[in-house]
Specification:
This protein has one domain: NAD(P)-binding Rossmann-like Domain (Rossmann fold). The longest helix is centred in the middle third of the chain and has 29 residues. The strands form two sheets. A seven-stranded parallel sheet has the order 3-2-1-4-5-6-9, sandwiched between helices. Strands 7-8 form a two-stranded antiparallel sheet. It has eight helices and nine strands. Helix 4 links the parallel strand 4 and strand 5. It has about 260 residues and is an alpha/beta fold. Bound molecules: nicotinamide-adenine-dinucleotide (NAD).
């Protein structure tokens, strides 16, 4: 029998990119998958790609920044599968801009998706996750450990997710719920992905990649399997985390000398 056979895994923002790769990694292990995203057209293609694996796939459009949509998704997943073992809070957006250029609407949108979205979805899913003594996973970022220039809003939201997870881990430990955080480094992006300028307009991705979505997904699966608290990804990400602990001052100097595009 496959490792995740009979278990149900829900991944937010799973129509493409890292979220899809995480869903596929669990599907390969035999899990039933709940795919959800705001991009309805991509969801059906993603569902088709998972049809070769043994588990069932259920899809539903869900904007995580809408609390009632999160509740509706969990209700639908329960009606379909009767259980939920793993929730991966992956849906996320990014602003790459100097703080002074960031407009309130763009800031609000980012926080609503990256932070509140994970809170809404986790709260909706908790009764089912608790019943299975399952896992709540948060996709944060290396920049949630050490904020980067032009990343004030994004990095803050990712740092807040780690903080949120810390609190939940202690609250939910006695109920047997695992809470894990994965912090990817720069990862290859889908060709259609854009980030936002400070005014919310789209901006192309211009940066090197040090990991792949499949690489991140493999780490998420291991984190859940071993019920670990955190995994920091990529050699640069691990070095950044260590340097941030040892000498944040030195890291300030390194980052100040580097024009980071996104
Ligand atoms: P992506 O844009 O390719 O995928 C994100 C998915 O989330 C998209 O399918 C998008 O439609 C969906 N989404 C956006 N807003 C949503 C909403 N309100 N509700 C539901 N779904 C929504 O991005 P990615 O590179 O695969 O990133 C996935 C996650 O990994 C994000 O949380 C991101 O911050 C994080 N991350 C990415 C990198 C990287 O280098 N790509 C690095 C660190 C962390």
């Amino acid at each position: 029998m496959s490792r995740w056979s009979g278990q149900v895994v829900l991944v937010t923002g799973s129509a493409r990119g890292i979220g899809f790769a995480i869903a596929e990694a669990f599907a390969q292990g035999g899990a039933h998958i709940v795919l959800s995203d705001v991009q309805e057209d991509l969801l059906s293609a993603a569902r088709q790609k998972l049809s070769r694996y043994p588990g069932r796939v259920f899809t539903q459009v869900c904007d995580v920044s809408d609390a009632s949509a999160c509740e509706a998704l969990i209700d639908a997943a329960q009606a379909e599968f009767g259980r939920l073992d793993v929730l991966v809070n992956n849906a996320g957006i990014s602003i790459v801009a100097e703080f002074e250029t960031c407009r309130p609407e763009a800031m609000k949108k980012l926080v609503e998706v990256n932070l509140l979205g994970s809170m809404y979805m986790s709260q909706a899913a908790l009764p089912l996750i608790r019943a299975q003594r399952g896992s709540l996973v948060f996709v944060s970022s290396v920049s949630g450990i050490r904020a980067i220039p032009k990343g004030a809003i994004y990095s803050s939201s990712k740092a807040a997710l780690r903080s949120f997870a810390e609190s939940l881990r202690v609250e939910l430990g006695p109920a047997g719920v695992h809470v894990g955080v994965v912090s990817p480094g720069f990862t290859t992006s889908d060709g259609a992905k854009t980030v936002m300028n400070g005014d919310g307009s789209p901006r192309p991705i211009e940066r090197p990649a040090h990991d792949t979505p499949a690489g991140v997904a493999a780490q998420v699966v291991q984190l859940v399997r071993h019920r670990q608290r955190e995994r920091v990804l990529t050699p640069l990400g691990k070095a950044t985390a260590v340097l941030q602990r040892l000498s944040p001052w030195l890291l300030d100097k390194v980052l100040a000398g580097r024009e980071l595009k996104n």
